[in-house]
Amino acid sequence: MAKKHARYAVGIDIGGTGIKGGLVDLKHGKLEGKRQKVKTPQGAPIDAVREAVREVYDLILAQDVAAQHGEAPVGICMPAVVRHGRSESAANIDQEWIGFDARGAFSEVIGTPVSLVNDADAAGYGEVRFGAAADNTGSVLVLTLGTGIGSALVHGGRLVPNTELGHLELDGHPDYERYASSKVREREGLSFEEWGERLTPYFKHLDRLFSPDEFVVSGGVSKQAEDFLHLIEVDVPVIAATLRNNAGIIGAGLLGAEHWD
Questions:
Q1: What is the pTM of this model?
Q2: What local confidence, expressed as pLDDT, does residue 63 receive?
Q3: Angstrom distance (rounded) from CA 146 to CA 129
Q4: Residues of the chain with pLDDT under 50
């Protein structure tokens, strides 16, 4: 059977506090129409999150712009390692997600097959396709500095999923994101200079492991890129993300379209 081709896709990003989504223009890598968002249910249990995802999906399809384009692929991202459609970890969501057929559950509740991917992978893929690293055809490592440290490795335009590099052991810290995330900087009241001293060995270590052509830094703190990126001393360009809060939606939609048949 020939692979389907679409102009638009639905992208949905499941976060710890909000579930947001929109219709993704696959040619230009931007949202078409209004972004929709609902609160993530308290504790993020499976059944409640499924219903919230269905609500966001219905809100997206209710827009005139969605109705004009008919059938569209669906991509969803969530804060978990995703292997063959199963969520194998759970960050800021209920532990009952671990080992669960999340892709099957979402496909059932919205009534159409979906693609499922890790949230940092989706955001990173979006940045490489249409964001800060759109001109890079080599290796790009996207790091999301937030509550933890999310990571996405894209090589030659292809995503290498589930890298989870925030959990690397380095310099006596068994889970380096607990020492160098943006949340840790805020909690400990670190200056940007002090934070840079923690980030530098981490970026250097990743450079030795993966030899990326450039790093892209995303997360809310990327809005303050001019305050700290120059403090990360590594012999590879470090640039700020540009898709910001829409990166996960766009990346999920793109990946959903790639796996649509």
A1: 0.94
A2: 87
A3: 22
A4: 1-2
